[in-house]
Write the C-alpha coordinates for this entry.
Amino acid sequence: MTGLPIILVIDDEVRSQESLKRVLAEEFEVLTASSPAEAETLLEGEMVHAILCDQRMPHCTGVEFLKTVRARWPDPVRMIISGFSDSDDIIAGINEAGIYQYITKPWNPEQLVATVKGAVQLYQLQRENQNASIEMRVAASALEQVVAGKRRALKSRYDFERIVHAEDSPMAEAIGLARKIAVYDISVLLTGESGTGKELLARAIHYNSHRADKPFVVENCGALPDQLLESELFGCKKGAFTGAYEDRIGLFEQANGGTIFLDEVGETSPAFQVKLLRVLQEGEIRPLGARLTRKVDVRVIAATNRNPEDEVEAKRFRRDLYYRLAAFRLHLPPLRTRPTDIPLLAHLLLGETMKAFGKPIQGFSDAVLSRLRAHDWPGNVREMQNEIQRMVALADGQILDVDLLSQALRPADLPEPCGEAALAGTLRERVETLEEQVIREALGRHHWNISRVADELGLSRVGLRGKLQRYGLERMN
Protein backbone atom coordinates (compact mmCIF):
# COMPACT_ATOMS: atom_id res chain seq x y z
CA MET A 1 0.00 0.00 0.00
CA THR A 2 1.18 3.51 -0.87
CA GLY A 3 -0.59 5.35 1.92
CA LEU A 4 -2.58 7.36 -0.64
CA PRO A 5 -6.40 7.58 -0.44
CA ILE A 6 -7.99 4.55 -2.13
CA ILE A 7 -10.50 5.08 -4.93
CA LEU A 8 -12.62 2.25 -6.38
CA VAL A 9 -13.59 2.72 -10.06
CA ILE A 10 -16.46 0.53 -11.34
CA ASP A 11 -17.01 0.42 -15.12
CA ASP A 12 -17.74 -2.48 -17.45
CA GLU A 13 -15.67 -0.88 -20.19
CA VAL A 14 -11.93 -1.52 -19.77
CA ARG A 15 -10.93 1.59 -21.74
CA SER A 16 -12.98 3.81 -19.42
CA GLN A 17 -11.39 2.14 -16.40
CA GLU A 18 -7.91 2.79 -17.76
CA SER A 19 -8.67 6.44 -18.58
CA LEU A 20 -10.00 7.12 -15.10
CA LYS A 21 -7.08 5.28 -13.50
CA ARG A 22 -4.52 7.20 -15.55
CA VAL A 23 -5.97 10.59 -14.50
CA LEU A 24 -6.38 9.66 -10.81
CA ALA A 25 -3.22 7.62 -10.25
CA GLU A 26 -1.00 10.60 -9.44
CA GLU A 27 -3.12 11.59 -6.43
CA PHE A 28 -4.76 8.31 -5.39
CA GLU A 29 -4.39 4.57 -5.25
CA VAL A 30 -6.93 3.32 -7.78
CA LEU A 31 -8.68 -0.05 -7.68
CA THR A 32 -10.84 -1.13 -10.64
CA ALA A 33 -13.78 -3.47 -11.04
CA SER A 34 -15.73 -4.45 -14.16
CA SER A 35 -18.91 -5.54 -12.37
CA PRO A 36 -20.81 -5.02 -9.12
CA ALA A 37 -19.87 -8.52 -7.97
CA GLU A 38 -16.17 -7.78 -8.48
CA ALA A 39 -16.58 -4.43 -6.71
CA GLU A 40 -18.22 -6.10 -3.70
CA THR A 41 -15.29 -8.51 -3.43
CA LEU A 42 -12.86 -5.58 -3.33
CA LEU A 43 -14.99 -3.72 -0.75
CA GLU A 44 -14.92 -6.80 1.47
CA GLY A 45 -11.14 -6.62 1.76
CA GLU A 46 -10.18 -2.97 1.28
CA MET A 47 -10.86 0.25 3.18
CA VAL A 48 -12.02 2.44 0.29
CA HIS A 49 -12.31 6.22 0.62
CA ALA A 50 -14.49 6.92 -2.43
CA ILE A 51 -16.36 4.98 -5.14
CA LEU A 52 -16.62 6.21 -8.72
CA CYS A 53 -19.30 4.18 -10.53
CA ASP A 54 -20.55 4.29 -14.11
CA GLN A 55 -24.34 4.62 -14.40
CA ARG A 56 -24.87 2.25 -17.31
CA MET A 57 -23.84 -1.35 -16.60
CA PRO A 58 -25.18 -4.66 -17.97
CA HIS A 59 -27.07 -6.03 -14.99
CA CYS A 60 -27.96 -2.93 -12.94
CA THR A 61 -27.56 0.81 -12.94
CA GLY A 62 -24.86 2.55 -10.96
CA VAL A 63 -27.48 4.16 -8.70
CA GLU A 64 -29.06 0.80 -7.91
CA PHE A 65 -25.65 -0.67 -7.07
CA LEU A 66 -24.72 2.29 -4.87
CA LYS A 67 -27.97 1.84 -2.93
CA THR A 68 -26.74 -1.65 -2.06
CA VAL A 69 -23.29 -0.29 -1.19
CA ARG A 70 -24.77 2.36 1.09
CA ALA A 71 -26.54 -0.32 3.12
CA ARG A 72 -23.44 -2.51 3.55
CA TRP A 73 -20.53 -0.02 3.34
CA PRO A 74 -21.82 3.43 4.36
CA ASP A 75 -18.37 5.02 4.85
CA PRO A 76 -17.01 5.43 1.29
CA VAL A 77 -18.19 8.56 -0.53
CA ARG A 78 -20.24 7.56 -3.59
CA MET A 79 -20.13 9.26 -7.03
CA ILE A 80 -21.83 8.55 -10.36
CA ILE A 81 -20.48 9.11 -13.88
CA SER A 82 -22.88 9.15 -16.81
CA GLY A 83 -22.87 10.41 -20.36
CA PHE A 84 -26.40 9.53 -21.32
CA SER A 85 -29.69 11.37 -21.09
CA ASP A 86 -30.74 9.59 -17.95
CA SER A 87 -29.91 12.34 -15.52
CA ASP A 88 -33.52 12.49 -14.24
CA ASP A 89 -33.29 8.85 -13.15
CA ILE A 90 -29.99 9.56 -11.42
CA ILE A 91 -31.26 12.67 -9.66
CA ALA A 92 -34.31 10.74 -8.44
CA GLY A 93 -32.04 8.16 -6.78
CA ILE A 94 -29.32 10.45 -5.49
CA ASN A 95 -30.76 10.87 -1.98
CA GLU A 96 -31.66 7.23 -1.58
CA ALA A 97 -28.22 6.09 -2.72
CA GLY A 98 -26.44 8.86 -0.80
CA ILE A 99 -24.54 10.02 -3.89
CA TYR A 100 -22.04 12.84 -3.26
CA GLN A 101 -21.56 14.00 -6.88
CA TYR A 102 -23.02 13.38 -10.32
CA ILE A 103 -20.29 13.69 -12.98
CA THR A 104 -21.24 13.98 -16.64
CA LYS A 105 -19.33 12.66 -19.61
CA PRO A 106 -17.11 13.76 -21.17
CA TRP A 107 -15.42 14.75 -17.94
CA ASN A 108 -12.64 17.26 -17.52
CA PRO A 109 -9.51 15.70 -15.93
CA GLU A 110 -8.77 18.62 -13.62
CA GLN A 111 -12.38 18.91 -12.49
CA LEU A 112 -12.54 15.15 -11.99
CA VAL A 113 -9.45 15.16 -9.76
CA ALA A 114 -10.80 18.13 -7.79
CA THR A 115 -14.15 16.40 -7.31
CA VAL A 116 -12.53 13.18 -6.10
CA LYS A 117 -10.29 15.19 -3.73
CA GLY A 118 -13.42 16.79 -2.28
CA ALA A 119 -14.95 13.34 -1.82
CA VAL A 120 -11.82 12.10 0.00
CA GLN A 121 -11.81 15.16 2.24
CA LEU A 122 -15.48 14.50 3.06
CA TYR A 123 -14.65 10.89 3.87
CA GLN A 124 -11.81 11.96 6.19
CA LEU A 125 -14.04 14.54 7.89
CA GLN A 126 -16.74 11.95 8.43
CA ARG A 127 -14.23 9.54 9.95
CA GLU A 128 -12.84 12.26 12.21
CA ASN A 129 -16.35 13.08 13.37
CA GLN A 130 -17.06 9.41 13.98
CA ASN A 131 -13.85 9.02 15.96
CA ALA A 132 -14.57 12.18 17.93
CA SER A 133 -18.08 10.95 18.65
CA ILE A 134 -16.74 7.60 19.80
CA GLU A 135 -14.10 9.30 21.94
CA MET A 136 -16.74 11.58 23.45
CA ARG A 137 -18.98 8.61 24.22
CA VAL A 138 -16.07 6.73 25.75
CA ALA A 139 -15.01 9.80 27.72
CA ALA A 140 -18.56 10.41 28.88
CA SER A 141 -18.89 6.78 29.91
CA ALA A 142 -15.55 6.93 31.72
CA LEU A 143 -16.58 10.18 33.42
CA GLU A 144 -19.87 8.63 34.49
CA GLN A 145 -17.97 5.70 35.94
CA VAL A 146 -15.58 8.04 37.77
CA VAL A 147 -18.46 10.10 39.14
CA ALA A 148 -20.36 6.97 40.14
CA GLY A 149 -17.22 5.64 41.82
CA LYS A 150 -16.74 8.90 43.71
CA ARG A 151 -20.36 8.85 44.80
CA ARG A 152 -19.98 5.30 46.07
CA ALA A 153 -16.78 6.29 47.87
CA LEU A 154 -18.47 9.32 49.45
CA LYS A 155 -21.48 7.29 50.47
CA SER A 156 -19.19 4.71 52.05
CA ARG A 157 -17.02 7.37 53.69
CA TYR A 158 -19.97 9.17 55.21
CA ASP A 159 -22.03 6.15 56.15
CA PHE A 160 -23.52 6.26 59.63
CA GLU A 161 -21.45 3.21 60.53
CA ARG A 162 -18.27 5.21 59.93
CA ILE A 163 -19.11 7.74 62.67
CA VAL A 164 -16.92 6.50 65.52
CA HIS A 165 -18.76 5.79 68.76
CA ALA A 166 -19.03 3.06 71.39
CA GLU A 167 -22.21 1.04 71.84
CA ASP A 168 -23.01 2.75 75.14
CA SER A 169 -22.12 6.23 73.85
CA PRO A 170 -24.69 9.05 74.05
CA MET A 171 -23.78 9.61 70.40
CA ALA A 172 -25.47 6.31 69.47
CA GLU A 173 -28.94 7.76 70.05
CA ALA A 174 -28.29 10.79 67.83
CA ILE A 175 -26.92 8.58 65.04
CA GLY A 176 -29.88 6.22 65.30
CA LEU A 177 -32.37 9.07 64.96
CA ALA A 178 -30.43 10.59 62.06
CA ARG A 179 -30.48 7.24 60.25
CA LYS A 180 -34.28 7.07 60.57
CA ILE A 181 -35.00 10.55 59.23
CA ALA A 182 -32.31 10.63 56.50
CA VAL A 183 -34.64 9.11 53.91
CA TYR A 184 -37.37 11.68 54.50
CA ASP A 185 -37.13 15.02 52.74
CA ILE A 186 -37.42 17.25 55.81
CA SER A 187 -35.17 19.98 57.15
CA VAL A 188 -32.93 19.14 60.10
CA LEU A 189 -31.43 21.36 62.80
CA LEU A 190 -28.28 20.03 64.47
CA THR A 191 -27.33 21.52 67.82
CA GLY A 192 -24.28 21.01 69.98
CA GLU A 193 -20.94 22.53 70.85
CA SER A 194 -18.37 23.34 68.17
CA GLY A 195 -16.32 20.31 67.19
CA THR A 196 -18.92 17.67 68.07
CA GLY A 197 -19.28 16.47 64.46
CA LYS A 198 -22.35 18.31 63.17
CA GLU A 199 -21.06 18.59 59.61
CA LEU A 200 -20.03 14.92 59.60
CA LEU A 201 -23.55 13.90 60.64
CA ALA A 202 -25.07 16.26 58.05
CA ARG A 203 -23.02 14.57 55.31
CA ALA A 204 -24.12 11.15 56.54
CA ILE A 205 -27.76 12.25 56.34
CA HIS A 206 -27.27 13.54 52.77
CA TYR A 207 -25.40 10.49 51.48
CA ASN A 208 -28.02 8.16 52.92
CA SER A 209 -30.93 10.03 51.35
CA HIS A 210 -32.47 9.94 47.87
CA ARG A 211 -30.44 13.10 47.15
CA ALA A 212 -27.12 11.26 47.51
CA ASP A 213 -26.32 11.58 43.78
CA LYS A 214 -26.76 15.35 43.88
CA PRO A 215 -24.48 18.05 45.36
CA PHE A 216 -23.79 18.61 49.06
CA VAL A 217 -22.60 22.17 49.67
CA VAL A 218 -21.53 23.90 52.89
CA GLU A 219 -21.59 27.50 54.06
CA ASN A 220 -20.48 28.90 57.43
CA CYS A 221 -23.07 31.59 58.02
CA GLY A 222 -21.14 33.17 60.87
CA ALA A 223 -18.08 33.94 58.76
CA LEU A 224 -19.54 36.57 56.39
CA PRO A 225 -21.42 39.89 56.62
CA ASP A 226 -25.01 39.91 55.35
CA GLN A 227 -24.38 41.17 51.81
CA LEU A 228 -21.59 38.69 51.08
CA LEU A 229 -23.52 35.86 52.71
CA GLU A 230 -26.56 36.66 50.59
CA SER A 231 -24.37 36.70 47.47
CA GLU A 232 -22.77 33.39 48.44
CA LEU A 233 -26.10 31.66 49.06
CA PHE A 234 -28.43 33.26 46.49
CA GLY A 235 -26.01 34.55 43.84
CA CYS A 236 -25.72 38.02 42.35
CA LYS A 237 -25.77 39.93 39.09
CA LYS A 238 -22.76 41.84 37.85
CA GLY A 239 -22.69 45.31 39.44
CA ALA A 240 -25.16 44.42 42.19
CA PHE A 241 -22.70 45.81 44.76
CA THR A 242 -19.13 47.03 44.97
CA GLY A 243 -16.90 44.10 44.07
CA ALA A 244 -19.57 42.21 42.08
CA TYR A 245 -17.51 42.07 38.87
CA GLU A 246 -19.44 39.21 37.28
CA ASP A 247 -22.63 37.18 37.59
CA ARG A 248 -22.38 34.65 40.37
CA ILE A 249 -24.37 31.45 40.90
CA GLY A 250 -25.28 31.01 44.56
CA LEU A 251 -24.87 27.87 46.63
CA PHE A 252 -28.61 27.23 46.73
CA GLU A 253 -28.63 27.00 42.95
CA GLN A 254 -25.45 24.92 42.92
CA ALA A 255 -27.08 22.53 45.39
CA ASN A 256 -30.29 22.23 43.35
CA GLY A 257 -31.60 18.71 43.78
CA GLY A 258 -29.20 18.09 46.66
CA THR A 259 -28.50 19.38 50.17
CA ILE A 260 -27.12 22.61 51.62
CA PHE A 261 -25.56 22.65 55.09
CA LEU A 262 -25.85 26.02 56.83
CA ASP A 263 -23.37 25.93 59.67
CA GLU A 264 -23.61 28.43 62.57
CA VAL A 265 -26.99 29.64 61.33
CA GLY A 266 -27.56 31.14 64.78
CA GLU A 267 -24.94 33.80 63.99
CA THR A 268 -27.02 35.40 61.22
CA SER A 269 -28.65 38.80 61.58
CA PRO A 270 -32.45 39.28 61.88
CA ALA A 271 -32.44 41.01 58.46
CA PHE A 272 -30.83 38.03 56.78
CA GLN A 273 -33.11 35.61 58.63
CA VAL A 274 -36.10 37.21 56.88
CA LYS A 275 -34.58 36.48 53.45
CA LEU A 276 -33.66 32.92 54.41
CA LEU A 277 -37.19 32.32 55.69
CA ARG A 278 -38.63 33.39 52.34
CA VAL A 279 -36.40 30.94 50.50
CA LEU A 280 -37.54 28.10 52.76
CA GLN A 281 -41.21 29.06 52.44
CA GLU A 282 -41.34 29.70 48.70
CA GLY A 283 -38.63 27.35 47.45
CA GLU A 284 -37.17 30.10 45.29
CA ILE A 285 -34.23 32.49 45.36
CA ARG A 286 -33.60 35.92 43.90
CA PRO A 287 -29.95 36.77 43.24
CA LEU A 288 -28.76 40.19 44.37
CA GLY A 289 -29.49 42.71 41.62
CA ALA A 290 -31.86 40.37 39.74
CA ARG A 291 -35.53 41.07 39.03
CA LEU A 292 -36.71 37.50 38.61
CA THR A 293 -36.72 34.65 41.10
CA ARG A 294 -35.48 31.12 40.42
CA LYS A 295 -37.00 27.92 41.73
CA VAL A 296 -34.71 25.59 43.65
CA ASP A 297 -35.24 22.16 45.15
CA VAL A 298 -32.85 21.93 48.09
CA ARG A 299 -32.91 20.11 51.41
CA VAL A 300 -31.63 22.32 54.21
CA ILE A 301 -29.64 21.00 57.14
CA ALA A 302 -28.68 23.76 59.58
CA ALA A 303 -26.45 23.75 62.65
CA THR A 304 -25.78 25.99 65.62
CA ASN A 305 -23.68 25.81 68.77
CA ARG A 306 -26.16 28.03 70.58
CA ASN A 307 -29.33 27.00 72.37
CA PRO A 308 -31.98 27.88 69.78
CA GLU A 309 -34.80 28.22 72.32
CA ASP A 310 -32.77 30.73 74.31
CA GLU A 311 -31.98 32.66 71.12
CA VAL A 312 -35.68 32.75 70.19
CA GLU A 313 -36.69 33.93 73.65
CA ALA A 314 -34.02 36.63 73.52
CA LYS A 315 -35.41 37.67 70.09
CA ARG A 316 -32.05 37.16 68.43
CA PHE A 317 -33.49 34.42 66.24
CA ARG A 318 -36.85 34.43 64.48
CA ARG A 319 -39.31 31.93 65.89
CA ASP A 320 -40.88 31.20 62.49
CA LEU A 321 -37.43 30.52 60.96
CA TYR A 322 -36.55 28.25 63.88
CA TYR A 323 -39.60 26.09 63.25
CA ARG A 324 -38.87 26.01 59.52
CA LEU A 325 -35.32 24.79 60.14
CA ALA A 326 -36.14 22.46 63.01
CA ALA A 327 -38.65 20.14 61.35
CA PHE A 328 -36.45 17.60 63.09
CA ARG A 329 -33.91 18.57 65.72
CA LEU A 330 -30.89 16.52 66.74
CA HIS A 331 -28.52 17.31 69.60
CA LEU A 332 -24.93 16.06 69.48
CA PRO A 333 -23.43 15.46 72.93
CA PRO A 334 -20.03 16.98 73.83
CA LEU A 335 -16.98 14.73 74.01
CA ARG A 336 -16.67 15.07 77.79
CA THR A 337 -19.94 13.12 78.14
CA ARG A 338 -18.62 10.34 75.86
CA PRO A 339 -15.66 8.81 77.75
CA THR A 340 -16.04 5.43 76.05
CA ASP A 341 -15.66 7.10 72.64
CA ILE A 342 -12.36 8.79 73.48
CA PRO A 343 -9.98 5.82 72.93
CA LEU A 344 -11.75 4.94 69.66
CA LEU A 345 -11.53 8.51 68.39
CA ALA A 346 -7.91 8.82 69.52
CA HIS A 347 -6.84 5.77 67.52
CA LEU A 348 -8.83 6.91 64.46
CA LEU A 349 -7.24 10.36 64.57
CA LEU A 350 -3.81 8.83 65.12
CA GLY A 351 -4.23 6.72 61.98
CA GLU A 352 -5.30 9.76 59.94
CA THR A 353 -2.41 11.83 61.28
CA MET A 354 0.18 9.15 60.55
CA LYS A 355 -1.10 8.92 56.98
CA ALA A 356 -1.07 12.71 56.55
CA PHE A 357 2.38 13.13 58.10
CA GLY A 358 3.90 9.97 56.63
CA LYS A 359 5.16 9.04 60.08
CA PRO A 360 4.56 5.54 61.58
CA ILE A 361 3.57 5.37 65.24
CA GLN A 362 2.69 2.20 67.12
CA GLY A 363 0.23 3.80 69.51
CA PHE A 364 -0.36 5.52 72.85
CA SER A 365 1.03 4.67 76.25
CA ASP A 366 -1.51 3.71 78.91
CA ALA A 367 -0.71 6.93 80.75
CA VAL A 368 -1.60 9.02 77.68
CA LEU A 369 -4.90 7.21 77.16
CA SER A 370 -5.69 7.81 80.82
CA ARG A 371 -5.01 11.53 80.38
CA LEU A 372 -7.12 11.68 77.23
CA ARG A 373 -10.05 10.06 79.04
CA ALA A 374 -9.71 12.40 82.02
CA HIS A 375 -9.59 15.64 80.00
CA ASP A 376 -12.75 17.77 79.64
CA TRP A 377 -12.15 18.53 75.91
CA PRO A 378 -13.75 21.97 75.69
CA GLY A 379 -12.85 21.99 71.99
CA ASN A 380 -14.27 18.48 71.49
CA VAL A 381 -13.00 16.39 68.57
CA ARG A 382 -11.16 19.29 66.95
CA GLU A 383 -9.16 19.83 70.12
CA MET A 384 -8.30 16.13 70.25
CA GLN A 385 -7.21 16.20 66.62
CA ASN A 386 -4.89 19.13 67.33
CA GLU A 387 -3.47 17.36 70.39
CA ILE A 388 -2.70 14.18 68.50
CA GLN A 389 -1.18 16.00 65.55
CA ARG A 390 1.09 17.86 67.97
CA MET A 391 2.19 14.62 69.64
CA VAL A 392 2.94 12.88 66.35
CA ALA A 393 4.91 15.87 65.09
CA LEU A 394 7.06 15.92 68.24
CA ALA A 395 7.48 12.17 68.66
CA ASP A 396 10.92 10.62 68.25
CA GLY A 397 9.88 7.11 69.26
CA GLN A 398 7.11 4.71 68.30
CA ILE A 399 4.94 5.22 71.40
CA LEU A 400 3.24 8.51 72.26
CA ASP A 401 3.90 9.17 75.96
CA VAL A 402 2.84 11.86 78.45
CA ASP A 403 5.92 13.98 77.82
CA LEU A 404 4.45 14.83 74.40
CA LEU A 405 1.14 16.08 75.78
CA SER A 406 0.40 19.78 75.70
CA GLN A 407 0.40 21.77 78.92
CA ALA A 408 -3.39 21.48 79.22
CA LEU A 409 -3.27 17.66 79.42
CA ARG A 410 0.05 16.98 81.09
CA PRO A 411 -0.26 15.65 84.69
CA ALA A 412 1.83 18.65 85.65
CA ASP A 413 0.87 21.79 84.10
CA LEU A 414 3.20 21.94 87.15
CA PRO A 415 6.98 21.70 87.67
CA GLU A 416 8.37 18.24 87.04
CA PRO A 417 7.67 15.69 89.81
CA CYS A 418 10.43 14.61 92.21
CA GLY A 419 12.47 11.53 91.42
CA GLU A 420 14.28 9.05 93.70
CA ALA A 421 17.33 11.29 93.93
CA ALA A 422 15.24 13.85 95.75
CA LEU A 423 14.36 11.35 98.56
CA ALA A 424 17.38 12.19 100.62
CA GLY A 425 18.00 14.03 103.89
CA THR A 426 16.27 13.77 107.22
CA LEU A 427 13.01 11.93 107.84
CA ARG A 428 11.14 15.24 107.93
CA GLU A 429 12.62 16.31 104.60
CA ARG A 430 11.79 12.95 103.05
CA VAL A 431 8.19 13.10 104.35
CA GLU A 432 7.79 16.59 102.95
CA THR A 433 9.15 15.48 99.58
CA LEU A 434 6.66 12.59 99.44
CA GLU A 435 3.84 14.89 100.55
CA GLU A 436 4.70 17.31 97.75
CA GLN A 437 4.72 14.42 95.26
CA VAL A 438 1.28 13.20 96.37
CA ILE A 439 -0.17 16.70 96.08
CA ARG A 440 1.35 17.13 92.60
CA GLU A 441 -0.24 13.90 91.37
CA ALA A 442 -3.63 14.77 92.86
CA LEU A 443 -3.54 18.20 91.24
CA GLY A 444 -2.78 16.61 87.89
CA ARG A 445 -5.59 14.07 88.20
CA HIS A 446 -8.17 16.71 89.04
CA HIS A 447 -6.95 19.46 86.69
CA TRP A 448 -6.26 21.82 89.61
CA ASN A 449 -9.75 21.51 91.02
CA ILE A 450 -8.86 22.50 94.61
CA SER A 451 -12.08 21.19 96.14
CA ARG A 452 -11.65 17.71 94.62
CA VAL A 453 -7.98 17.52 95.58
CA ALA A 454 -8.80 18.59 99.15
CA ASP A 455 -11.56 15.95 99.40
CA GLU A 456 -9.25 13.21 98.11
CA LEU A 457 -6.45 14.10 100.50
CA GLY A 458 -8.70 14.72 103.50
CA LEU A 459 -7.70 18.39 103.77
CA SER A 460 -9.64 21.60 104.00
CA ARG A 461 -9.35 24.05 101.11
CA VAL A 462 -7.49 26.45 103.40
CA GLY A 463 -5.13 23.68 104.54
CA LEU A 464 -4.46 22.62 100.97
CA ARG A 465 -3.72 26.19 99.86
CA GLY A 466 -1.26 26.52 102.71
CA LYS A 467 0.61 23.45 101.50
CA LEU A 468 0.58 24.74 97.91
CA GLN A 469 2.21 27.96 99.06
CA ARG A 470 4.65 26.02 101.22
CA TYR A 471 5.85 23.86 98.34
CA GLY A 472 5.66 26.62 95.73
CA LEU A 473 3.11 24.81 93.64
CA GLU A 474 1.71 27.63 91.54
CA ARG A 475 -0.30 26.71 88.48
CA MET A 476 1.44 27.38 85.18
CA ASN A 477 -0.74 28.97 82.50
